[in-house]
Design goal:
globular, 7-stranded antiparallel β-sheet, single chain
Length: 136
């Protein structure tokens, strides 16, 4: 019986550590899937660029950057479902922002009432949008 204790202890440690690996990807399709937890819709959304990081902790901390081309219907649905509102405050980008992530000043900035770290930028009458989301 005493020989089984080290085996079970080893098994518990391996299981615990294997569940604590962080995720980091710059693959646009994977970024979208990690961020939404759904596969990329075939014809409605095109993800041009993305970066995603998720901590290895069980608390689901993550940071996502996306550059997307999406039809007006999809953009409006995102705004409505998340209760986003126009935000005129200055957004200070994080230090490690990707080089390609630079929403132009002409884009309208939206924010979530539920998550002060979620930002969404879109240009009126255009399909390109930028998304930033941080969950700590």
């Amino acid at each position: 019986m005493t020989k089984m204790k080290p085996f079970f202890l080893f098994l518990i440690i391996v299981l615990f550590l294997s569940g604590c690996s962080q995720v980091h990807t710059d693959n646009p399709q994977k970024v979208f899937r990690y961020w939404t937890h759904i596969p990329l819709p075939n014809s409605r959304v095109e993800v041009l660029k993305g970066r995603y990081w998720q901590s290895g902790h069980f608390t689901s901390e993550y940071e996502a950057y996306l550059l997307i081309v999406a039809p007006e219907e999809w953009r409006n649905e995102l705004i409505e479902l998340n209760g986003l509102f126009v935000d005129t405050a200055t957004w200070y980008c994080p230090k490690d922002v990707p080089d390609w992530f630079s929403p132009p000043g002409t884009f309208i900035q939206y924010q979530s009432p539920h998550n002060s770290q979620f930002r969404f930028w879109m240009q009126q009458n255009a399909d390109t949008i930028y998304i930033y989301d941080l969950q700590l």
